[in-house]
Amino acid sequence: MRGLLLLCGVVLIQLLAVQTDAQRSKSKWQTLTGFSPRVIARGGFSGLFPDSSIDAYNFAMLTSVEDVVLWCDLQLTKDGAGICFPGLTMSNASNIEAAYPNRTNTYLVNGVSTQGWFTIDFSLKDLNKVNLIRGILSRSERFDGNGYSILTVQDVNTELKPQGLWLNVQHEAFYAQHNLSMTTFLTTTSKTIIIDFISSPEVNFFKKIAGRFGRILVPKSYVLPLDDKQYLLPSTSLVQDAHKAGLEVFVSGFANDVDIAHDYSYDPVSEYLSFVDNGNFSVDGVLSDFPISASASVECFSHMGRNATKQVDFLVISKNGASGDYPGCTDLAYAKAIKDGADVIDCSVQMSSDGTPFCSSSIDLGNTTMVAQTPLRNRSTNVPELSSLGGIYTFSLTWPEIQTLTPAISNPYRTYNMFRNPNERNAGKLVSLTEFLNLAKNSTSLSGVLISVENAAYLRENQGIDVVKAVLDTLTQTGYTNITTKKVMIQSTNSSVLLDFKKQSRYETVYKVEETIRDILDSAIEDIKAFASAVVIVKSSVFPDSEGFVTEQTNVVERLQKSQLPVYVELFQNEFVSQPYDFFSDANVEINSYVTGAGVNGTVTEFPYTAARFRRNRCLGSKETPPYMAPVQPGGLLQVVNHASLPPAEAPNPVFTDADVTEPPLPPVTAKAPTSTPGTPSEPSTNAPAPSGQTRLTLSLLLSVFPMAIASLLLL
């Protein structure tokens, strides 16, 4: 970060041997000393607050391991004061341009003419008018108005009293050219302040202050390199070679909100573990913008096998299988969900024209397959009851035709240039409901299946297809009787569908409330209990957010649970852009806050491995919960934001009432009129059933935002 990744290898020393090893675990670690790896907070908690600000440093100490090391990028002012600031020039991470618009200068830096606001042109008094702001534009600007002062090294030591302090000297030669001595500053400062580590890319600088090197600091890629597609290559021998030579290895470049290898499925803990607990070696420390994740990885998730005891109990329910890693609802997505530890795998049932139920996340095949690039694209029709745009619907193709289609992985955050597992973007095959149920039945680890049924009224009235009957018949044919060792859960957003299932079977029924709500009436809960045994709600109905910040916690979960209705929450995704800032760009922090904070009974996730692993982390079994495993305080971050920088108040979410639950019963199956040759667009229906009170915003509406021709290109 800011040049650190470009270092060819930074040598570092420890000035004073003030060790805190006694506070750290020593057992299975493959570090040089045998102690757990150190966590170094780069500029404090710089992934959230402005780099090197008082809140960044404070928050790092509050949320990290006890012996977290605070990293300070040391710069010198005109009058020789040592300040903590992430760059030699100051425009990128401060408001100096506004404070001193006419004080730019041009100097040679490493032989390159560079213009900017240099620290050497300002005295410490001058910098009293300058405040720290975010240095990476993708991070929140809400803390820029907090008026954070630039801190001196003495400030950090006096105000924070860190257990470890690391000074990074990036440009000693530049300062020497301008008659400012880093050596003199460090020598003088070390008489009153304990400086645990010093690093620099300039070897000559170290020759001035020490005669030997005991550690090396390298970018992540020097240990675990990546290919040009962002997949991991075999690890280098750097760590083992360094350890043989008696050198510790610290690794830089960890941040939760940057691209990481596809192998990690956007899970920062998986990345940390590959460096500290891979079975072959462990680096001796990690430099991170998000020290809470580094701390949890080291102390909670390391040395933990797949069969480790669960420390907390909640259901891990897949969403279209492990659809974060493979195309959803394919054999590969379901197989990985089972392997990754899901308790329940799900099938969103769709119907083919010949009456075969199969699994697909959308009734529009253009959203889930490459159908738009096949001759079957001429089956596109307009169905206003399902979408305002045309689509190639499942009921327009036979099951044999659908089986010929190539599935496509979902990329919900392509606008952020974030793509899921591109090497497997078209892997696997779609499965019928029969195949899905047989797969689940043969699994020894699954506790059940969840079958989602939508658009039942439309299919009965307009396509002559009874999806409820098709599901029940398939369950019977595959041996899923009413009482079975595998739990069967039937989910729908329609009360009429669940009532129909309840009349004909004894399977568990799950009601999905797909709109964001702030509360739910007692009368609505009583109505739900008449046809459902559990409820699925969206994440924002638990922790509503505004412009990326959690505002509060509702009582929806508590009210439903008091009525003996388990609550499952969706949708959990690993991509950091799917989470409010309060969860620190870490899916594990988010899961923790919903499970141990809000007490939900289950998570519906596209990345089952992350949720299943979370249950086993040993910190959940501790007598005292460590700070890096504490759930977030809803609305807590907003309390730190300057009032003038707060996001505008939004209209409150609605209260869910009994009127939102009540629906007319499902219509009878209407015989489908003879159709013309395949590919002839059908006339839109004029007798669509009246919608229920709940908003029916289908996945098709969310994804079909472009004409089919463009959509097909985006799937490539």
UniProtKB/TrEMBL annotation:
Residues 37-298, 314-615 form the GP-PDE domain. It catalyses: a sn-glycero-3-phosphodiester + H2O = an alcohol + sn-glycerol 3-phosphate + H(+). The keyword Glycoprotein applies. Keywords: Glycerol metabolism, Glycoprotein, Hydrolase, Signal. Residues 651-693 are annotated as: Disordered. Pfam families: GDPD. Residues 1-22 form the signal peptide. GO terms for biological process: glycerol metabolic process; lipid metabolic process. GO terms for molecular function: glycerophosphodiester phosphodiesterase activity. Its EC number is 3.1.4.46. Residues 674-686 have a biased composition (Low complexity). Belongs to the glycerophosphoryl diester phosphodiesterase family. This is glycerophosphodiester phosphodiesterase.
